[in-house]
Design goal:
It contains four helices and eight strands; from the N terminus they run ααααββββββββ. With 213 residues, it is α/β, with parallel strands linked by helices. α1 packs across α2, α2 (26-45) runs antiparallel to α3 (48-64) and α3 (48-64) packs across α4 (66-83). The longest helix has 20 residues, at 26-45.
């Protein structure tokens, strides 16, 4: 993935702001701009002011564009239920949450196929500590906003399908941000690996990091 020049990002951001302001109103455009600013600030320093800015921006969006917010949530849930199908006869967790804080990095935790839809979430998963329940594990994570980090051992077969409408996706040392980011990648020897993982990650606003170790 090639990096996007800063000048291009500035023009894209300015054009998107004007387009959104003309279509949905500048109150909505300003709320979205403050929301993105709050997410970036919160990711860097976890300050309470950034969390407050995110909450205020979301509240302004809900009040000003309630119909649009409801439509986005319903469409996102519909796509989620189409993708969140049990992959096999093993245990499968499928849930939806308004807020999701998922941290799986303790020693010897059990890795199972799972699917989560959430409005806002923070997820960190370290598979170097995991004990897979099945040879192939499928994980579906989808939401409005998410900060996601996965650490995957090199001896896993890995298939990644990830997309964000606004945000960034990082895969090992490669990282790209902006509008409508998407990656699809599959290990060349996926079928020969003793353990296999399918990651499906979809967010409207998101920061996704996937590292192999």
């Amino acid at each position: 993935m090639k990096s996007i020049p800063k000048q291009a990002l500035v023009f894209i951001a300015a054009g998107s702001y004007l387009l959104l302001g003309g279509v949905a109103g500048y109150l909505t455009a300003n709320a979205l701009a403050l929301l993105v600013l709050g997410i970036v600030r919160f990711r860097s320093d976890r300050e309470r002011k950034a969390a407050v800015l995110i909450a205020v921006s979301v509240l302004a969006l809900i009040i000003n564009q309630l119909g649009l917010v409801v439509a986005i949530v319903l469409l996102s849930l519909g796509v989620f239920y189409m993708k969140a199908k049990p992959p096999g006869p093993g245990n499968f967790v499928s849930r939806h949450r308004l807020l999701l804080h998922l941290r799986l990095d303790q020693p010897s935790w059990i890795l199972r196929s799972m699917a989560y839809w959430h409005a806002f979430g923070e997820i960190r998963v370290d598979l170097t500590m995991a004990v897979p329940e099945e040879r192939e594990t499928t994980v579906v994570l989808q939401g409005i906003m998410g900060d996601v980090e996965w650490i995957v051992p090199e001896d896993y077969g890995l298939q990644i399908e990830a997309s964000v409408l606004l945000g960034q996706i990082g895969w090992n040392a490669q990282q790209e941000g902006g509008m409508a980011q998407r990656i699809y990648w599959r290990s060349p020897d996926y079928d020969q690996k003793a353990h296999q993982l399918k990651l499906q990650l979809f967010y409207l606003v998101g920061n996704i990091k996937i590292r192999s170790m």
